[in-house]
Amino acid sequence: MASESRLYAFSPETKEKLRKFRLGTSRAKDPQAIICKAHLLSRRPLRRRCQVYNKLTVNLLDIIDQKSQEIRPENGEVYTKMTDVADELPDSSPRFILLSYPLTLKSGRPSVPYVLLYWLPENCNPNSRMMYAGAVELMRNTAQVNRVIEVEEEDDIISIESKLQSED
User: Fold this and answer.
1) What is the pLDDT of residue 149?
2) DSSP-assigned letter for residue 78
3) Which of 71, 23, 31 is nearest to 52 (CA)?
4) DSSP state of 109
5) CATH assignment of 2-167, given 3.40.20.10, 3.40.50.1110, 3.40.1000.10, 3.40.225.10?
6) Record's PANTHER family (predicted)?
């Protein structure tokens, strides 16, 4: 974690929002997700936009300060379906998606997996790929997710319930 912590940092406010999201989704009845995206801009601040989707949840827009590499949240858009999240994902840029997905396992036991989906499309820019790869473990540790699942196609996002069912 030391190497990625030198490249990226989370402000105490962002850490608190991630903690509240994690704790607040543990008993949720509907799926909830935060989509984080970064824009590579030369000589300008990098932007990370996070969107939360759920009927009652407010979204976040994260901005990375170029000098401090600190991530700060702002408001964003709301999604209500996994298909909407999949439609929002770009064809050629990676993203992080924090997902809390309530489901009932085949055994009948309720479960709420809290995972980090790592959206990594086949044709993404190598610079973006490297930037996100360097932040995966920091994001995983900061968000305190149970596991990281790499997804490459929109269908993987839409059918994530079957993947979560099979891995629990």
Assistant:
1) 95
2) E
3) 31
4) -
5) 3.40.20.10
6) GLIA MATURATION FACTOR (PTHR11249:SF2), GLIAL FACTOR NATURATION FACTOR (PTHR11249)
Distance CA 129, CA 134 (A): 9
Run of H or E including 56: none
pLDDT in tens, 19-42: 888 888 777 788 888 777 553 333
Alpha-carbon dihedral of residues 168, 131, 80, 102, nearest 10 degrees? Answer: 20
Residue 55, token pair as written in the block: 């009927």
**In angstroms, how far is CA 106 from the centroid of its own chain?**
26
Look up residue 152 and give its two tokens: 């490459």
Total residue length of the chain: 168
Q: How far from 2 is each of 6, 66, 70, 96, 166, CA to CA, in Å? A: 7, 19, 15, 20, 33
Task: Calculate the CA 71 to chain-centre distance.
Answer: 14
User: Residue 77 has what pLDDT?
Assistant: 53
Residue ranges of alpha helices (H) inside the chain are: 2-7, 12-24, 82-88, 126-143, 154-158, 160-167
Torsion angle of the four alpha carbons 168, 18, 4, 156, in this order, in degrees rounded to the nearest 10:
40
Contact assessment for residue 38 and residue 46, using Cβ atoms and an 8 Å cutoff? yes
Which structure tokens are listed for 142?
């900061």
- Please give the Cα distance from 125 to 93 (Å, whole number): 7
